[in-house]
Design brief:
Radius of gyration: 27 Å
Strand content: over 45%
Order of helices and strands: HHEEEEEEEEEEEEEE
Structural class: mainly beta
Number of strands: 14
Distance between the termini: 50 Å
Strand order of the largest sheet: 1-4-5-6-7-10-11-14
Mean pLDDT: 87
Shape: elongated
Largest sheet: 8 strands, antiparallel, barrel
Low-confidence stretches: 1-5, 7-28
Number of helices: 2
Length: 252
Amino acid sequence: MRGPSSVITTLLAVCGALALTPSAAEARKAKKLELGVGVLGFVNGSFLTEPDEADKVATIQSGNNSVQAKIPYPGFAGVGGGGGITTSFMYRGAIGAQLDFLYSVDQGKGEINDVAVEIGQGAFHIPLMLKAAIPLRSVRPFLLVGPEFVIPSEPTVESDLFAKAVKGEADAYVDLGFGLGFDFLLPGEHDLRIPLMIRGNVNFDVPGGTEGRVTLGDYNPATNELSLKSLSTAWQYQAFVMLGFTWNQAIN
């Protein structure tokens, strides 16, 4: 029969061996350098605020008179969606960068003289963001901020009001993107995660008034309004709710 000292020595040896054997959770702790790749899907909201009434007036010459003509421009808002791929590079799971390649349907509706007008386009979004995270074992919260490059495809303007006479215009532009999210780590020996993010972007190049948002046409004295030749479909604000799946690998 073993004495108490032998039992204590055996227990200490077993505990020491267990302490030196990494558990699955320990094995998935943040490595020095991590590379992550995955896919994202999302729904988004796109917004153009309505200018003040004082900004929806233009002074024009009508015959020998100066006229304060109205510019028929509302605000626009709508829901779209899309998806793409995501990559990230992290140091000790705490600081790094995230680069996404996304395709999005960006669209919204407004009303001019009580008639619905829909504008929008498909667009490639390429956000390159700094990423700061708290490398916890099961859920890793993180913040993102950085430029987002937007490359629109052919924009559209749809309304019975215009009979296709008004065109959409959108060149490539750069937003400021930002967001917060959580990486939910899945159980198992591999570092698989489900990222959930709420993100937004702001386009500071969109003016507050109508100048730069519209190209004006002819004056209609019967309505005291200017016609529209084109509408810009570069969005002022956007919001995204994203869900994805990523695989992460230590590269050190």
